[in-house]
What we know:
alpha+beta; 3 strands
Amino acid sequence: xxxxxxxxxxxxxxxxxxxxxxxxxxxxxxxxxxxxxxxxxxxxxxxxxxxxxxxxxx
Length: 58
């Protein structure tokens, strides 16, 4: 199953972004090398990961 690849609206039109596709797992790839493989995260791990990288703590 292949989901639609998405990237941040803050990204430029150049291919130097991280892209994400939501399928049975969350897939992440480098837009500079879309055929170079993906990282896969289970849904249960993706949300805490995003919370951790966007946390605006002390």
